[in-house]
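Section 5.1 Outputs to date
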Amino acid sequence: MSWVTGMILRQNTSLLQAVINGDRFLVQELLSQGSDPNDRDGKNTTALMYAAQKGYTEIVNLLIQAGADVNHSNQPHRITALMMAAAANQIDVVKILINAGADLNQVNDDGTPALAIATYRGYLQVVRLLVAAGAEINIGDRDGDSPLSLAIAANQPEIVKEIVQAGAAINSRDLQGETPLTIATEKGNSSIIDILLAAGAQIDLTTTRGETPLAIATTNGNQEIVQQLLKAGANPNLADLQGDTPLHIATVEGYRDLVAMLLETRAEVDCRNKIGDTPLMIACLQGYQEIVELLIRYGANPQLKNQEEIPLTLALAHNNEQIIKLLLAAGADPNTRLPDGKTILMQACDRGQVKIIEELIKAGADVNIQDRAGATALMWASHRGYTEAVETLLKTNQVNLDLRNRGGYTALMLAKFNEYAEVVELLQQAGAAEK
């Protein structure tokens, strides 16, 4: 291509294209010839915005000197040159635009200003420039996210510190009901939590769902953060809107070490949630033996009821022999009746749970108690044909073989009626009356 052809092509190049190409000399030439410094493309993005994004400081200066609008925004996103420079970490361009009077608090279509953009991307120097120039610290975007919450979400502790020192609101809630401290807790960032607490963040301030930072850390199973919050004075007994405390949450999730940590910091062991469950009830229902043991060690009451259920009945439902042993050793009453009038022993006999029957008998279960229908534990075992369960009861030498239910039937009659030959033989050998 000849020199003449090149000159013609340069003369026919738009200012916008010259800026995109980074051709400072052509930009200067075109401006001197009267090109519009606000030249823009089809999306309303100006030459200044392109230059700002690419970090062409000399071209930015040329355009501003020629009268480019520093606060023009494109369509449809309403992005400005300052936002583009901030998003691209173009520190020198940000300085130029600030000095040229760019609106620091102008927002895009999401309600996001340049400070929030730089914050989320982790551009500390840009953040410092904007803060020093007077950018509004607490502007929330369309979702209610402030520069502080965005910095926390992006795990940017240095920027968090910068914004906090500039006066960011640290105890406010966003549109999702989150506080800066709950966001930091969710992210598991201990250094940011320290920064917020040192700046005066309220350690027990809840979300709109009633969750404290401690509850969130517990839900996430984050031992480091739980310990950090407890050492900083978090209250382990605050409940959420469902009445669940961190101890309930740790128990539900099966976090044995967190349960221990909470109990060591005076968590209330028998606290109830809104449906009446204690942590011990939950642990028994879930079959968490180690947690049951811990809760009992810290004084959990094995006799507390919820809708006629006690920990012993919940453990029985899951045939958990070891948990039942723990509960009985802790003072659970082996003669506790269920809502239908059965004792725990009867229920175990009805299910043929031999090991549990043995433990209940050892703990003093009365083998001759009758339920509302007059049935005994022996009748339930005989009715079901559970030979081993019948044998276990007979070995106590305390069973009244001839008690009758309200229908007039003995255990032997029930076994005969159901044709359980082995059970019939056992009862006859033990001396049960035939009539």
